[in-house]
Write a structure and sequence with these properties.
single chain, alpha+beta, 1 helix, 4 strands
Length: about 110
């Protein structure tokens, strides 16, 4: 009989077993960065044109086309990311849709 090296002892499937039986650590999950929950820089002087009000029990940002209610417009329900309805960037985005003829309702979720 010959003595075998325990580090190269073949397992059940005939493959050599690794020398170390330690588990490798799980991969790290990416952290939530600040840009995910804060506004991006804006150009100086930009301001929103809509208003924050209540619709039932929910705060909403509402912005309207310039010819509303005298001309038909489509309703757009704009759902935001983590920055919410108080984000000036989200409000400006809603205002841009309103300039294209949409009545925009952005709920605080």
């Amino acid at each position: 009989m010959t003595e075998t090296d325990p580090g190269n002892d073949p397992g059940k499937d005939g493959q050599a077993q690794p020398e170390s039986h330690e588990r490798s650590p799980p991969p790290e999950r990416p952290a939530v960065n600040e840009h995910c929950v804060s506004d991006s820089p804006l150009l100086a002087g930009e301001a929103s044109s809509g208003e924050i009000s209540k619709l039932g029990d929910v705060n909403v940002y509402i912005t309207r086309p310039s010819d509303y209610p005298h001309a038909p417009s489509k309703l757009l329900l704009l759902l935001t990311n983590g920055t919410g309805i108080h984000s000036l960037n989200n409000q400006l985005q809603a205002d841009k849709y309103a300039a294209e003829g949409f009545l925009v309702v952005m709920p605080d979720m």
